[in-house]
Every structure is written in C-alpha cells, then in structure tokens.
C-alpha cells in the first residue's frame, strides 16, 4: 500500500498537522520526509503527526521521522505523535524512540 499525506495548519493550537495514510516504508518514507519538511520550512510550527490512518511503519519510516525531528529541534520546535496504533507504538517503545517524540494519548487534548 502507498502512503498519502495530508498536511493542514491548525490555527487554534498553532500546529502543523500531518496525517499520513497507509504504509510508511522504503517506498514512501523519503517522499513523506520531503513533503513534511517542505511544509515545515514554510510554517516553522510545532508538528502534530496524527497516526489514525497510518497502518505500518518500517525502519526507513522511523528514519524519516528522526530526520524530521532533527530539523524541528534545530528551531526549538516539537513533534507530537497522536492516535498511534498499538503495533506502531510498540516499535517506538522497543527502539526507545518514545523518549525522543512526545506521544499523546487519546485522552490528551
């Protein structure tokens, strides 16, 4: 499955909202990173990556997220992850990336 990416600006919370849909893998992660960084460089806002439609992520997808995180941290901005499915959350826990990214639970606003 391919990856579609929707990017919106949430003016209320001053966030750049990223909604990846499908699989973030070797075939799609480079394009995902380019899209996100292009949008980020225009807006320079904290990022919220909403994983409600993200089905799968592999090591190249994790690498893309880390690359985005490095760029965002240089500007003292943050990346929030929300609605992460259990199978994807497990990858963040195993690789200890849950310590680098701010993962919001469903109860967080």
General description of the model:
The chain is an alpha/beta fold. The chain has a single domain, classed as Transcription Regulator spoIIAA, CATH 3.30.750.24. The protein has three helices and six strands. It has helices spanning 29-43, 59-74, 86-94, and strands at 3-10, 15-24, 46-50, 54-57, 79-82, 102-103. Strands 1, 2, 3, 4, 5 and 6 form a six-stranded mixed sheet that branches. Strand 2 (15-24), helix 1 (29-43) and strand 3 (46-50) form a beta-alpha-beta unit. It is globular, with a radius of gyration of 13 Å.
List keywords for this structure.
Anti-sigma_ant; Transcription Regulator spoIIAA; alpha/beta; STAS_dom; 37% helix; 6 strands; 30% strand; 109 residues; STAS_dom_sf; 6-stranded mixed sheet
Topology record:
Elements: E1 3-10, E2 15-24, H1 29-43, E3 46-50, E4 54-57, H2 59-74, E5 79-82, H3 86-94, E6 102-103
Parallel strand pairs: 2-3, 2-4, 3-5, 5-6
Antiparallel strand pairs: 1-2
Helix pairs in contact: 1-2
InterPro entries: Anti-sigma_ant, STAS_dom, STAS_dom_sf
GO molecular function, one term: anti-sigma factor antagonist activity
Protein name: Anti-sigma factor antagonist
Report the end-to-end length measured between terminal Cα atoms: 30 Å
Which topology does CATH recognise?
Transcription Regulator spoIIAA
Biggest pleated sheet = 6 strands, mixed
Strand content: 25-35%
Residue share in helix: 25-40%
Q: What is the 3D shape?
A: globular
CATH class: Alpha Beta
- Determine the structural class based on helices, strands and strand pairing: alpha/beta
Radius of gyration, whole Å: 13 Å
Which CATH architecture?
2-Layer Sandwich
Low-confidence stretches: none
Can you identify the CATH superfamily? STAS domain
Number of helices: 3
Number of domains: 1
- Give helix and strand order, one letter per element, not per position: EEHEEHEHE
Oligomer: single chain
**Mean pLDDT value:** 90
Q: Please report the total strand number as a whole number.
A: 6
């Amino acid at each position: 499955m391919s990856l579609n990416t929707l990017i919106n600006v949430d003016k209320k919370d001053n966030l750049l909202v990223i909604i990846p849909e499908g699989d973030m893998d070797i075939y799609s992660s480079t394009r995902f990173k380019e899209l996100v960084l292009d949008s980020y460089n225009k807006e320079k806002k904290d990022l919220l990556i909403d994983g409600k439609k993200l089905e799968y992520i592999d090591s190249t997808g994790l690498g893309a997220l880390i690359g985005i995180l490095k760029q965002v941290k240089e500007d003292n901005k943050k990346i929030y992850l929300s609605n992460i499915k259990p199978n994807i959350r497990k990858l963040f826990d195993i690789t200890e990336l849950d310590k680098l990214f701010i993962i919001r639970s469903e109860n967080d606003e």
